[in-house]
Amino acid sequence: MELQGSCHCEKVKFTVKSHAPVPFMRCYCSICRKVGGGGGYAINILGQARNDTLKVEGMEHVKIYRGIHDKSLPKEQQEECGNRRHFCGECGCMLWAFDPQWSEWCYPFASAIDTPLPEPKRPNCIMLKYKANWARVPGPKEADLFDEYPDASLESWHKKNREYID
Description:
Layout: E1 2-6, E2 13-17, E3 25-27, H1 30-35, E4 42-43, E5 47-48, E6 55-57, E7 62-65, E8 84-88, E9 94-98, E10 105-108, E11 124-126, E12 144-145, H2 154-160
Parallel strand pairs: 3-11, 11-12
Antiparallel strand pairs: 1-2, 2-6, 3-4, 5-10, 7-8, 8-9, 9-10
GO molecular function: carbon-sulfur lyase activity; metal ion binding
Protein name: Glutathione-dependent formaldehyde-activating, GFA
Family: Belongs to the Gfa family.
């Protein structure tokens, strides 16, 4: 499935192919909740970065941010995340994340996608160990809850839940 996305000011537009377009995973880590908006989490989708399926118009407006893993450590012990969060330098809208360690994938922010997306049957809430005390989390009857990362990947969740599109 081809996803179309853009920033709020529309100076950046992009398309990316995805076999796993259901926005099911809410990340509550300190970096995602800061860049993801006011809900206390961010939602990313799995996109294919390989074979040039990510096409960007307005790349000159795109900026990149790399978060710090643990800001509570002394400055000399802090490490940048491998994940690079791409955002519009004009309106600040988060667009997609990319980590060279998994160069075949990119992770568009669900909020930047303009294509109608399927609703997840049962979301995963991850990195709950790091969530803000005010962030609301669904109960175990509505969502699968994880203190850190789950064992399943984005791709395997979509295959297991029959949401994988060839």
